[in-house]
Write a structure and sequence with these properties.
globular; cytoplasm; about 30% helix; alpha+beta; Phenylalanyl-tRNA Synthetase, Chain B, domain 1; 3-stranded antiparallel β-sheet; SRP19_arc-type
């Protein structure tokens, strides 16, 4: 069985609080995370990523997309989100 995890940009967004949906520490959070860089980070850590641009998180009004991570059965969602945040920091340096 293949596991699909969804990563919404809000999980990494430094402008949001934990109760608003951020899933990483403020220190690891990203300013204005984009689905394209999330997908690139997912691919760099070894998983397949599918970008869906025209989808909005249920708690948001505007569609800013999401990334579906395929084949991440060996990783918890939290570990995956943490690794993506760390890799985006490397990409932005």
């Amino acid at each position: 069985m293949t596991v699909e995890n969804v990563i919404w940009p809000r999980y990494l967004d430094a402008s949001l609080t934990r109760s608003d949906g951020r899933r990483v520490s403020l220190r690891d959070a990203i300013e204005d995370p984009e689905v394209d860089e999330i997908a690139e980070a997912v691919q760099q850590i070894g998983y397949d990523a599918v970008i869906e641009h025209d989808v909005a998180h249920p708690r948001e009004w505007g569609a800013n997309g999401r990334v579906i991570v395929k084949g991440a059965d060996d990783s918890s969602k939290n570990d995956l989100v943490q690794a993506v945040a760390a890799y985006i920091h490397l990409l932005r340096e």
